Amino acid sequence: MSTQPPGVPPDDSADHRQGVGYPPGYGPTPTYPAHGGTGPPYAAYGQGPALPPGFSPPEQYQEEPTSSLSERAMFVAIAALAGVILGVLGGWLWSVVADPPVGVLTDKGVFLTEERAYDQQVVMTLWFLVVGVGLGLLCGLAVGLLGRKHGVTTVVAVLVMTAIASGLSAWLGIEVFGPDPQAQVASSAVGDPITAALEIATKVAYLGWPIGGLLGLLVGVSTWTRAKAPNLSWASSNVAPH
Questions:
Q1: Which residue in 35, 56, 109, 153 has its CB near the most CB atoms, within 10 A?
Q2: Nearest to 179 by CA among 190, 187, 167, 189
Q3: Dist CA 176 CA 169 (whole Å)
Q4: pLDDT value of residue 166
C-alpha cells in the first residue's frame, strides 16, 4: 500500500516502481544517444542501427519495365521489315564482291574448265557467308541495343530478320544483281567472254546471317545494366525500440 502523502503526485521513478510491485525493467522510456555515445548505437529516433565504419549498404535495384504483348509483336514485325531491307543490301553487296568465273562462248556453248568453275564457286559461297556474318552482326547488335525492354523477344526478332535477309539476299544476288549468262549469250558472238551466274555451293552458307545476328545480339545484351533504385538510407526502414 502506497505511503505517498495526499496531494503529492506519486513518485514515478524506476526505483519507486520497483518498490510497489512493477515488473523488473518497467520504468521511464530510456533515451538512446547517437552512435559513439554511451548507449546502444542507434543513430536517431526513427532510424535503425548505425552502420559500422567502412561498411556500405548493399545496392538496391528496381525492376525494368517490360513491354506488352502488342509491343513485342510490333517489334518483331519491324525486325522482319528490316530483314527485307537488309536482304536487298546483302544481295547487292554479294554480287559486287563475289568473283564468278568467266568462260568463253563457243559454237557448242560456253567453255569453262571444271577446276576453275569449282574454285570460283567456293569463293562465291565464302563471300556470301562473309557478307551474311558481317551484316548479321550489325543488325543483331542494333536489336540488342534497342530491344532492352523486350527481353527474350529480341532473340525471336533477330532470327526472323536474319532468316528473311539470308534467303532474300541469295535470291536477289543470283536472279537480279548477278550476271545473266543467257542474256550474254544472246548478245555475244563466238569467242566472247561469258560471266557465269552466282551460285552457292552449300546450304550451310545461309547460316552466316543468323550466326552473325546472334553474336551481335549477345554483344548488345551484354551492355544491359539494371537500374539502381533511389539512394535510400539502409537504416531508415527500421525503427528504434522504445
A1: 153
A2: 187
A3: 10
A4: 97
Which domain covers residue 196, as residue numbers?
A: 69-221
| Nearest alpha carbon to residue 159 among 206, 102, 223, 98 | 206
Question: Strand pairing of 102-106 and 193-195?
Answer: antiparallel
Residue 238 maps to a domain: no
Q: Which residues contact 176 (CB under 8 A, 6 or more apart)?
A: 91
- State how many domains the chain has: 1
**Among 86, 82, 211, 62, which Cα is nearest to 147's?**
82
Task: Name residue 151's beta-bridge partners.
Answer: none
Please, what's the largest Cα pairwise distance for the chain? 140
Q: In this structure, is residue 227 part of a structural domain?
A: no
Residue 158 covered by a domain: yes
**Which pLDDT belongs to residue 64?**
60
Nearest-10 crossing angle of helices 153-172, 114-146: 150
Q: At what angle do helices 208-221 and 114-146 cross, to 10 degrees?
A: 30
Instruction: Answer whether 125's CB lies under 8 Å from 40's CB.
Output: no
Taking only the tens place, the pLDDT of each residue in 77-89 is: 999 999 999 999 9
How many residues appear in the chain?
Answer: 242
165 in a structural domain: yes
Q: Nine-digit cell at 195?
A: 560471266
pTM value is 0.63
pLDDT digits (tens, 9 = 90+) for 134-151: 999 999 999 999 988 888
List of residues 6+ apart from 11 with CB closer than 8 A: 4
- Residues of the chain falling short of pLDDT 70: 1-65, 107-118, 226-242
Dihedral pair phi/psi, residue 51, rounded to 5°: -75, 140
